[in-house]
Amino acid sequence: AACSGFVVGLITATRFIKGGGFQNVLVIGADGLSRYVDWTDRGTCILFGDAAGAVLVQACSGDEDGLLGFDLHSDGHGQKHLNAIAKDEETELISSNNGAPLFPPKRSSFSCIQMNGKEVFR
């Protein structure tokens, strides 16, 4: 969920508050993508890295603005243009364990990030 995970968390927090169930929601987001970056690929290595952040979302009075709204267009149709494929050896390891993944995995589960930048940023 890399980039979108924090945004979805923020939207979820505001929905919890607007629903009246919570007054305060702490949203924490962290991405560790550097382990999936091919450092020789300038098309991806300058875009993906490690980061973390947190925000406390609090209820506000009716006359304050708060989060005005959101419009999240997420359909997955372009997934072939930005991905990190599961490694073959990891797939074999899962198959040898009656289809259940081993946690924590002994090694990184995905290949390097692959991106068709012209399609992603179109």
UniProtKB/TrEMBL annotation:
This is Putative beta-ketoacyl ACP synthase III. Residues 1-76 form the Beta-ketoacyl-[acyl-carrier-protein] synthase III N-terminal domain. Belongs to the thiolase-like superfamily. FabH family. Keywords: Fatty acid biosynthesis, Fatty acid metabolism, Lipid biosynthesis, Lipid metabolism. GO terms for molecular function: 3-oxoacyl-[acyl-carrier-protein] synthase activity. Pathway: Lipid metabolism. The keyword Lipid metabolism applies. The keyword Magnesium does not apply.
